[in-house]
Design a protein that fits this description.
This protein is an alpha+beta fold. Among the domains are: 59 residues, no CATH class; 242 residues, Orthogonal Bundle (Citrate Synthase, domain 1), CATH 1.10.580.10. It has 17 helices and seven strands. Strands 1, 2, 3 and 4 form a four-stranded antiparallel β-sheet that branches. Strands 5-6-7 form a three-stranded antiparallel β-sheet. The longest helix is centred in the middle third of the chain and has 27 residues. The protein starts with 10 loop residues before the first strand and ends in a 49-residue tail after the last helix. The site of s-citryldethia Coenzyme A has 21 residues, from loops.
Length: 464
């Protein structure tokens, strides 16, 4: 890992250096500083040179939720939120969905270019032959209640993988990194299917190496007795959905994987952090929330009342809005096309009419368009999963399967980046200072405790 960046802004004589730089004047001192601009950014560490007194800490940036902060340099995924563009290693997502397969895209994300036939054959062989999970994982699952949420089970079992492959701690060993990528991409569908079968009290279905990646997942979910013939149209649609969910630059769960991985923990533990972040309803959990929302709306006539509730902040239009896309999410456009194809195979779903009308009304409404709220990847995907017979609480699990290849690609890129080191943000301290310890007998408070402790109102700072 690189040493601490020492570059800091130095006070200037006021004459601008021109070029790619920012000249700032600190009005507290009248001093001007030259800040270098590289790749559209200013290094936060350069602000530390801006001080009032020599022994000051210097300036920091304050950016809750990192809405305007680049945490890395990455060559994996390019997103242009205004134009609605998504490219993996420079290849537009539309072309990858049209011509590629999920396993080929997983290789592209991890190793930087499309594989040759022999590279793809070896990659596919390695993934297909590592789909089995250790039998003890089944004992781990037995500890869960029958109604345990499958994302909670997946979170636990992915983290448990780190205990089965202790050599993965050798994160600087290229062979260990490759095997971790293979094992995670290969085993997460198996762990996902085990969670589903546990929730139904059904025997687990082992991976079938005669099937391709998406067919095998459907088989592990739905096979009964000894036969299961995956519908090729559904398997193809699922493979496209896997491509669409594989990576999305520095989203919440990828940022979690990078941050946890920066402590040099093994990749299984780092990816488990990604599973945990994806579980949230504002992130990967949105696809499940969209289906519940459509079921609650129940019929097209209820859409106006629902949208009024959203505008009154009583609820959110799940599947709409995005931190980066301020235009239509290109993935939603592709998924919407596949919804119609899947429903041809499985039969109509009245929820599609509600979703289509809901989108139309929202995009005609200034509340949404003025906030640049458009359908995102989660708005239509649940309709396909439901049409395949996958229950709503499994939707985020199905999102986690392909995102595993993005997480491990980003983890590998981080480990190869000499600029990266352990993530350790700073803070603006707002608490008390230099308070004395008060013996318990001298403390004041309610005699009768009627609920959880209330947050104590901020006291004026001593000497303030
Ligand atoms: C994913 O980052 C990624 O790349 C994620 C992802 C990936 O592939 O990894 O693309 C996957 O997580 C897609 C997003 C799925 N989440 C949802 O669909 C949940 C619903 N969407 C929102 O909660 C929201 O849009 C976020 C979380 C996605 C983005 O939130 P931001 O960028 O923090 O925006 P914000 O909350 O500051 O909203 C700006 C304004 C606010 O209104 P004002 O207070 O300014 O008046 O828009 C409003 C918000 O209230 N708003 C919504 C809304 N989303 C934002 N109002 C109603 N419904 C919504 N869905």
């Amino acid at each position: 890992m690189a040493t601490e960046q020492k570059t800091e802004a130095a006070a200037t004589d006021g004459t601008s250096a021109g070029g790619d730089s920012l000249t700032v004047t600190d009005n507290r001192t009248g001093e001007s500083y030259e800040l270098e601009i590289t790749d559209g950014t200013v290094r936060a560490m350069d602000l530390r040179g801006i001080k009032v007194n020599e022994d000051d800490f210097g300036l920091m940036t304050y950016d809750p939720a990192f809405t305007n902060t680049a945490n890395c340099r990455s060559a994996i995924t390019y997103v242009d939120g205004e134009a609605g563009i998504l490219q993996h290693r420079g290849i537009p997502i539309e072309q990858l969905c049209e011509h590629s397969t999920y396993l080929e895209v997983a290789y592209l994300l991890g190793f930087g270019e499309l594989p040759t036939q022999s590279q793809l054959d070896r990659w596919t062989f390695d993934v297909i032959h590592h789909t089995f999970a250790h039998e003890d994982i089944k004992k781990l699952n037995e500890g869960f209640r029958h109604d345990a949420h499958p994302m909670g089970m997946l979170l636990a079992s992915v983290g448990a993988l780190s205990t089965f492959y202790p050599d993965a701690k050798r994160i600087d060993d290229p062979e260990e990194r490759y095997m971790a990528a293979i094992r995670l991409i290969a085993k997460v569908p198996t762990l996902a299917a085990f969670a589903y079968r546990h929730s139904l009290g059904l025997p687990y279905v082992y991976p079938d190496n005669e099937l391709n990646y998406s067919e095998n997942f459907l088989s592990m979910l739905f096979k009964m007795e000894n036969t299961y013939e995956p519908d090729p149209r559904l398997a193809k649609a699922l493979d496209v959905l896997f491509i669409l969910h594989a990576d999305h630059e520095q989203n919440c769960s990828t940022a979690a994987v990078r941050s946890v991985g920066s402590s040099q923990v093994d990749p299984y533990s780092a990816v488990a952090a990604g599973v945990a972040a994806l579980y949230g309803p504002l992130h990967g959990g949105a696809n499940e929330a969209v289906l519940r929302m459509l079921h609650e709306i129940e019929k097209v006539e209820n859409i106006p009342d629902f949208l009024e509730g959203v505008k009154n902040r009583e609820e959110r239009l799940m599947g709409f809005g995005h931190r980066v896309y301020k235009n239509y999410d290109p993935r939603a456009r592709i998924i919407k096309k596949h919804v119609e194809e899947v429903l041809e195979a499985t039969g109509d779903n009245p929820l599609l009419d509600i979703a289509t009308e809901l989108e139309k009304r929202a995009l005609d409404d200034d509340f949404f368009t003025s906030r640049k709220l458009y359908p995102n990847v989660d708005f239509y995907s649940g309709l396909i999963y439901e049409a395949m017979g996958i229950p709503a609480d499994m939707f985020t699990v199905v999102f986690a399967i392909p995102r595993t290849s993005g997480w491990i690609a980003q983890w590998m890129e981080m480990n190869g980046d000499p600029e990266q080191k352990i993530a350790r943000p700073r803070q603006i301290y707002t608490g008390d200072r230099d308070e004395d310890y008060v013996p318990i007998a001298d403390r004041e408070g309610p005699e009768k405790i009627t609920g959880p402790p209330a947050r104590r109102p901020k006291r004026p700072r001593r000497g303030a």
